[in-house]
Amino acid sequence: MGFLVAATVVLVARRSESLSPSGGIAALVLGIVCSAAGLSWAGVLVGFFITATLVSRFRRERKESRISNVVEKGGERDALQVIANGGIFGTVAAASIIHPSAAWLCIGAGAIAASSADTWSTEIGTLSSVMPRSIITGRSVSPGQSGGVTWLGTAGGVAGAVVIAFITILVGWSKAAAVTAIIGGFTACLVDSLLGGTLQVKRWCDQCTMTTERTIHVCGTTTQPAGGFPWITNDVVNMLSSAAGALLGVFLYLLSNQ
Ligand SMILES: [Zn+2]
Fold first, then answer.
1. Residue ranges making up the domain that contains 67
2. What pLDDT is recorded for position 92?
3. What is the 56 CA–ligand 1 centroid distance (Å)?
4. Ligand 1 mean position to 166 CA, how many Å?
5. Phi/psi of residue 211, nearest 5 degrees
6. Tens digit of each residue's pLDDT (9 = 90 or more) over 136-180
7. b/e string for 1-29 if b means 16 or more Cβ within 10 A?
8. Could you tell me which of 186, 58, 182, 208 has the C-alpha nearest to residue 126?
9. What is the DSSP string of the chain?
10. How many domains does the chain have?
């Protein structure tokens, strides 16, 4: 049944151009693993996926026109993006099968709330009429540039975390898991922006004289490295912030059981 639900969701996502072919396969595997962990795990995953897709599609054209010259990827999510956002949650779900414990609910909630908060803060923040500022230097940066923050984006991140908290309550997870979703989601947003503004790879287009994450810019120019580590891409940063959310889940679980 889990396979059928996962396959249906992936088919709908493929048809609506939310997932690339490789992204579809990764999402299917993730769906099967979570279904094996239990209906509630599958429910949280599907809830995350549907709400993230809806917020991504909200005013999509307007957002793409604003940030397509800065961000590395857009539109359909590929396998790496699916793994970066759901890989830690899937690993936690698998661990809960091998060694059942209430701790996994907090850890899983933290991991997926982190991904949700990241997604929401990016998607909502891109619509901000105010120019983002670098979380590191405080200077104005282009919309879509990693490490740039706006109040609207921060509010979006909180909303993304709260959505996951609601979903965990709906599927019957513990109060501690819901609390972890909110705190973990917000913390992960901060981690995402801090890493995005420091270690994440930055490139420079000579033609357009602007910072970008693209190797080949929208103008066709091959961009030059301009800071950060080449292997710390947006996907790596997203996975690290999901790991931060999971880690916070460990601490909050231990705290709630004092
Ligand atoms: Zn260019």
1. 2-256
2. 97
3. 25
4. 42
5. -80, 145
6. 888 988 887 888 899 999 999 999 999 999 999 999 999 999 999
7. ebeebbeebbeebbeeebbbebbbebbbb
8. 58
9. -HHHHHHHHHHHHHHTTSB-HHHHHHHHHHHHHHHHH-HHHHHHHHHHHHHHHHHHHTTHHHHHHHHTTT-S--SSB-HHHHHHHHHHHHHHHHHHHHS--THHHHHHHHHHHHHHHHHHHHHHHTT-SSPPEETTT--B--TT-TTEE-HHHHHHHHHHHHHHHHHHHHTT--HHHHHHHHHHHHHHHHHHHHHHHTTB--EEETTTTEEES-SB-TTSPBPEE-SSBTT--HHHHHHHHHHHHHHHHHHHHHHHT-
10. 1
Report CA(209)–ligand 1 centroid distance (Å): 7
Tens-digit pLDDT profile for residues 63-119:
788 887 778 776 788 999 999 999 999 999 999 999 999 999 999 999 999 999 999
Is the CB of residue 183 less than 8 Å from the CB of residue 252?
yes
- Ligand 1 centre from 147 Cα, in Å? 20
